[in-house]
Amino acid sequence: MSAPRRILIYGVHGAGKSTLAERLAEHLGLPWYPVDDLLWKPGWVEVPVAQQRSRIEKICQRDRWILDGAYHGWRDVPLARADLVVGLGYPRWCSFWRLLRRTMRRLVTGEEICNGNRESLGSVLSGDSILVWHVGGFGRARRRMRAWQADPSAPPVLLMRSPADLDDWLIDLPRR
């Protein structure tokens, strides 16, 4: 397989999309555009969807990019231009454990997520918690990845069913 130039990484919250995007950017020498930076203003104020779409369209017009997610108002944009979709279709327990571990680390360290935003105990315990999003979005994300994989008009989809599958693929992926 030749090295892809436009990669969409997709999966449920906590699956490891940003971690993989960072690894692939280093491995392939591609620019990575963290989606959270494009979607959120300081204070967890969401950028209007039309503006999100415009930002994503500008990125996807380029010849080389990595995006670490795709959301409702503009998911079609990177899908129309991607050379490859890497789907992180790990079991629920695996992705939830990763999300829980990451969330706890962020609470303890105060790590910035994007644009000055941080997780707080109040946000984690709220009905709008990322943990709740994971539970609600897990099945939809898996169904979407499988549908893309079965669609001959969609870009190729590599559906990783475990972190070991991902590691095996990365070993064989040509470097920049």
Question: How would you characterize this protein structure?
Answer:
The chain has eight helices and seven strands; from the N terminus they run βαβαββαβαβαααβα. The longest helix has 21 residues. A hairpin with a 3-residue loop joins strand 3 and strand 4.
What keyword list fits this structure?
alpha/beta, five-stranded parallel beta sheet, 176 residues, 8 helices
How would you summarize what this structure contains?
With 176 residues, the protein is α/β, with parallel strands linked by helices. Helix content is 51%, strand content 14%. The longest helix has 21 residues, at 130-150.
Topology:
Elements: E1 6-11, H1 17-28, E2 32-33, H2 35-39, E3 40-41, E4 45-46, H3 49-60, E5 65-67, H4 76-81, E6 84-88, H5 92-109, H6 121-125, H7 130-150, E7 157-160, H8 163-172
Parallel strand pairs: 1-5, 1-6, 2-5, 6-7
Antiparallel strand pairs: 3-4
Helix pairs in contact: 5-7
Strand fraction? 5-15%
Q: Which structural class best describes the helix and strand composition?
A: alpha/beta
Count of alpha and pi helical runs: 8
Strand order of the main beta sheet, please?
2-5-1-6-7
How helical, in percent, are the residues?
40-55%
Largest sheet properties: 5 strands, parallel
The strand count comes to 7
**SSE order in H/E notation?**
EHEHEEHEHEHHHEH
In round numbers, the mean pLDDT is: 95
Q: Rounded to an integer, what's the Rg over CA atoms?
A: 16 Å
Name the overall outline: globular
